[in-house]
Specification:
Blueprint: E1 2-4, H1 5-10, H2 12-19, E2 24-28, E3 31-36, E4 64-65, H3 68-77, E5 82-85, E6 88-91, H4 97-114, E7 120-123, E8 128-133, E9 136-140, E10 144-147, H5 150-153, E11 166-170, H6 176-190, E12 194-199, E13 204-210, E14 215-222, E15 226-228, E16 236-238
Length: 244
């Protein structure tokens, strides 16, 4: 999770609790300056006689490093869902009920608000290809995204090849670290303008605004609040409605 220094100062207690669950990266003036992690008591090392060997097939477990070509070959030959971020393949687990409830409510509210407007909300599974630079190809499946150039950026194969203006990720036990650190950094550096992180564990929503590959602003909304978009004036979501 990335937070700016001012937000950390004003909400230190909350972020100390969050650090028990995931790593906190502190950003100041657009630069990563510190890391806040949970403290673990040192553990004695097991003797070599107790070391357990893993079966050979465990080396194929995910996440694992691969080339983009290997990722494409895997996705074409498998019915499972995967993401590819900075040369690492991640398998996408089946979402739990609380995740789908929040996603369903969000999509309904987004679809209603954007009806008749030029931008369009899209649901996962939907591949988004993002480039940090020409050779760095990443493929992700955000839970929900808002696309404003859909007609211009769909290729001959029917895939969207642009950058969404707004992306939403709903945290789960298996994705929270990736969503709050790896994917946030990816979205920030590839032109996404706004990033919503929906946290079912704390029942809250954090909205980040990105500008010129920098974290320009963040707002945190709790149960009882109405989450608001920086980018789309009037786009509002009652937080409590996502978790009922």
């Amino acid at each position: 999770m990335l937070v700016n220094a001012t937000d950390l100062k004003n909400n230190l207690g909350r972020y100390l609790r969050e650090a028990m669950r995931e790593e906190i990266i502190v950003v100041s003036s657009g630069h990563k300056v510190a890391r806040l992690i949970a403290y673990d008591e040192p553990k004695s090392q097991p003797s070599s006689s107790l070391k357990i060997s893993e079966p050979a097939e465990a080396t194929a477990a995910y996440p694992r490093e691969a080339t983009y070509e290997e990722f494409l070959e895997l996705t074409q030959s498998s019915e499972k869902r995967y993401e590819f971020i900075d040369g690492v393949i991640y398998e996408i687990a089946s979402p739990k009920t609380v995740h789908q409830q929040a996603l369903g409510e969000l999509h309904y509210m987004f679809a209603s608000w954007f009806r008749g407007k030029p931008c369009r909300p899209m649901l996962a599974p939907y591949d988004i290809t993002l480039h940090r630079f020409a050779e760095n190809i990443n493929v992700v499946q955000p839970d929900l995204m808002v696309i404003c150039d859909l007609e211009e950026k769909v290729n001959q194969q029917g895939y969207y090849m642009g950058v969404p203006d707004l992306v939403v990720e709903i945290l789960s036990e298996s994705t929270r670290g990736k969503d709050c650190i790896k994917k946030m950094d990816l979205y920030l550096s590839t032109g996404v303008r706004e990033y919503w992180i929906v946290n079912p564990f704390n029942e809250d929503v954090t909205v980040h605004r990105f500008e010129e590959q920098d974290l320009a602003d963040s707002r945190h909304f709790r149960t009882g609040d109405v989450a608001e978009s920086f980018l789309f004036s009037g786009l509002m979501v009652p937080v409590q409605a996502l978790f009922n």
